Amino acid sequence: MAYKHFEHLADIGIQGTGSTLSTAFEEAAKAMFEIMVDISKVKLKNQVSFSVSAENTEELFVEFLNELLSLSSLKRIMFSKFKVRIEKSKLHATAYGEKISKKTELKTEVKAATYSQLSVIKKANKFIARTIVDV
Amino acid sequence: MAVPARIYASRKIKSLLNSENSEWNSLQQLKNIAKLPGVEKPVIANPDIHVGYGFPIGGVAAFDLEKGVIVMGGIGFDINCGVRTMATPLKKSDFNGREKEIAKLLYDNIPAGLGVGGKIKLSLNEIDNLLVEGAEFAIKKGYGIKQDLEFIEENGKISGADPKAVSQRAKQRQFSQTGTLGSGNHYIELQVVDKIFDKKAAQAYGIKENQVLISFHCGSRALGHQIGMDYTKDLAKAVRKYKIKIPDKELVCAPINSPEGKKYFSAVKAGINCAFANRQVIAHLARKTLAQAFNLKPEKIKTLYEVAHNTAKIEEHTINGKTKKILVHRKGSTRAFGPGRTEIPEKYREIGQPVLIGGTMGTASYILKGTQKAMDETFGSACHGAGRILSRNAAKRKINSQSLTAELKSKNIIVLSHDKKGLLEEAPQAYKDVEEVIKVMHETGIAKKVARLIPFVVVKG
Q1: Which sequence spans correspond to the domains of chain B?
Q2: Which tops the pLDDT comparison, B427 or B332?
Q3: Chain B residue at shortest CA distance from A100
Q4: 3-state secondary structure B270-305
Q5: Which CATH superfamily is domain B5-460 in?
Q6: Strand order of the sheet with strand A90-99?
Q7: What is the pTM of this model?
């Protein structure tokens, strides 16, 4: 898996790795939704597209994650797959998932993505995007 | 220039703090907030301190209104998360084997868990009223009784909230979230008063041994989270605009006096009122559940007090012998005002405010009283709980599910959880020993012990 969680005492760290910045973001989004639901069980029945912008790559990453959390709560959809395209300071994304129903086994709510331990770096030809999410 | 930090801890707690991860730890976070512009001395760490995002949880920092900043991390995403305790006329013996039945009723009647909507659906106009009126809005809608308001911090309604400072999206997300508990460490408990330490204070607060209390912990739900998200980016811009040096990016902030700072503060106040309204609805649902089950008049279940944990508020304090208005951030910290403060309900004013400390699932909660010493040393603040020592993942790795169940059973505690898998994350072993934390508060005289409460029914969000 190209995504993982890392330890934080009160909250949870998420990390995505990819050969491009976009895939690193996509993987990190999976790590975030995995906290709320078993994403392998989420069917790809609904999709939402959106764009966000920010003044730098790190803030763009947090904007992207928070937009996903917001849309998930508003539209009552759990997302499990993401397509991201980044153009300089703008990010276009489509998130795929399934409406929350009585059958959905939900876990812990993620309140928001934070700037704490936030980093987006390139290391040995891999992009790594990570931050702490508030649960 | 950094101001000094003051840490309230015992040897045991100090060694726990020293063993935290070296790079990101609560003491480093405490040092970071001591460097923010306009911070008053000292910054405070309560004995439940642990690493948070930007600000340490259990931390207190106050700021000069002219030179200071309002800090996102000092309030957090769950704005005005807090605890309400209500006193019932019931004794533990009145339950007489009905504990499970009552636990199930609370579980069914109080919406909780991720993505679960509440019983009230609000229009946009109504949300705007709720953001200004707080708990009073809920009472007007028929949730609860007017007497409740007197026993809520700020009387359940902070002035200066501006619904226009809150995004449409934040409001939309709240349409069906009012009156929901949420998930994670949010809970509702039935507790029995196990021991009284201060008879006079207990009498004033209206509690005696063996009496059953209802306590719950929750906050401003999706609206608060969205305010946090919306302003994270606005405050990041403000940091650049005003060239504020912040040691950690999560400490994004704005000068209190700037347009950005003022707008954020009025949105935070709206979030504070949202949480007051939310807890008022939950109070009503819990009260109704117990009143029906035991054939009681609902007004016999009285609000003892309600405290806020994640707030920034302008308060008057004495600094170097002079009375001054300052902005006090409490992140995972309870206001603990001492005797005489006019903010305290008249009934308790001579004693000091009730300081409600939530325990963990299988351990005691405490009612303390605020003191003059807290006014002198901690801007009238105390701890808010036990404080985590194991991360959620570590808790799942190290704690055995069967032994946890057996332990709770041996203590006769019934636990129902909306998030079955999350139970281990909130196990008592994941937290510091609440007794140790309370001992520090009591022995330093910041907040003195009034009563110990033992849970017997726990419903987790």
Answers
A1: 5-460
A2: B332
A3: B115
A4: HHHHHHHHHHHHHHHHHHHHHHHHHCCCHHHCEEEE
A5: tRNA-splicing ligase RtcB (3.90.1860.10)
A6: A46-53, A90-99, A77-87
A7: 0.95
Per-residue pLDDT of B264-320, as tens digits, reads 999 999 999 999 999 999 999 999 999 999 999 999 999 999 999 999 999 999 998
Which residues does chain B have within 8 Å of residue A55's beta carbon, measured at their own beta carbons? 236-237, 240
> Per-residue pLDDT tens for B50-77?
988 899 999 999 999 999 999 999 999 9
The runs of H, that is alpha helices, within B295-419 are: 372-377, 392-398, 401-410
What is the overall mean pLDDT for chain B? 94
Q: B178: which 2 tokens?
A: 């009012």
- Residue B55 Cα, gap to closest chain A Cα (Å): 10
What six digits make up the tokens of B233? 């980016």
* CA of B419 vs chain A CAs: smallest distance (Å): 6
Examine the residue annotation and report whether B186 is marked as an active-site residue of this protein.
Answer: no
The CATH code of the domain that includes A31 is 3.55.10.10
Regarding an ipTM greater than 0.85, the answer is yes
Q: Which residue in B448, B423, B446, B416 sits closest to B104, CA to CA?
A: B416
Asked if the Cβ–Cβ distance from A73 to B232 is below 8 Å, we say: no
Name the residue range of residue A53's domain. Answer: 3-134
